[in-house]
Amino acid sequence: MIDSFLQVLKTSPNLFSEQATAALNTLEEKIVAAENESNQAISDILSNWCSNYREITAAVKAATKSKPKPKASQPQGDENILENQFPRRFPRLIQSLEKRISEIPKNS
Q1: How confident is the model at residue 64 (pLDDT cuts 50, 70, 90)?
Q2: Is a pLDDT exceeding 80 seen at residue 43?
Q3: Contact call for residues 96 and 32 (beta carbons, < 8 A)
């Protein structure tokens, strides 16, 4: 879940409405505050947050089913213009999630 959400956040900024983007601030605070919690607790936080956004939930589920996980795509014209805004706007969220997935054994 963590890896899939991070993948969607990095590669599909178009799925995040203004409301979802604004709500990322709260999500970032929750994830950073839960630094010492288990990966399951972080996954639960992400699942609860995603449940408010149908398109994001569908993309995360699709990303979870696809193996291997593709790397973040490069912007092509104006198509992914928001792609570079999320890392700049929500650096603690992305760093916290990336740290989590770097600690997950690759065979799980």
Answers
A1: confident
A2: yes
A3: yes
Secondary structure in 3-state letters for 20-85? HHHHHHHHHHHHHHCCCCCHHHHHHHHHHHHCCCHHHHHHHHHHHHCCCCCCCCCCCCCCCCCCCH
Half-sphere exposure of 67 (CA within 13 A, CB side): 4
Measured CA to CA, the distance from residue 20 to residue 56 in angstroms comes to 9
So what's the pLDDT on residue 106?
Answer: 53
Spatial contact of 84 and 26, defined as CB atoms under 8 Å apart: no
| Dihedral (CA of 1, 50, 89, 31) sign | negative
CB 50 within 8 A of CB 58: no
